[in-house]
Amino acid sequence: MKKIETSCIIDDDPIFIYGTKRIMKEIDFCNDILVFNNGQDAMDGLNELTSQGKDLPSVIFLDLNMPIMNGWEFLEDFVQIPNNNREKVTVYIISSSVDPRDLERIKNYDVVNNYILKPLSPQDLEEVLESMI
């Protein structure tokens, strides 16, 4: 199965991060995993990558409810990154509940591919891999 070069988890829940990283390693999901605990740290880290001429992660798993900068605020800033590989990035919203307003709101962002309920399962990640092929 195809493997992703770099993925990114943006979430403030250490248990979710630990579990997701473990599953990613088990199914050989990607070569490298970037982790940020809020949207601001993620923006700083991704801007640093682009300033160094490095590629952005192929996949970003984004929580909506975080301190400092939430997922919606991150998306607003992320779409402003002047990087020619931003359009190669796929964002998956991850949340512990389905809010119909959130489902409607994600339609405003071309970069958002889907909404996945926590916790992520190996099957969820395998479906992400299949969609990247």
From TrEMBL:
Keywords: Phosphoprotein
List of residues that carry 4-aspartylphosphate: 63
Pfam families: Response_reg (PF00072)
Entries under InterPro entries matching the protein: CheY-like_superfamily, Sig_transdc_resp-reg_receiver, TCS_response_regulator
GO biological-process terms attached to the record: phosphorelay signal transduction system
Gene3D superfamilies the record matches: 3.40.50.2300
Domain Response regulatory, first and last residues per copy: 6-133
Segments passing through the bilayer: none
Entry-linked PANTHER family: RESPONSE REGULATOR RCP1, RESPONSE REGULATOR RCP1-RELATED
Protein's UniProt name: Response regulatory domain-containing protein
Record organism: Flagellimonas maritima
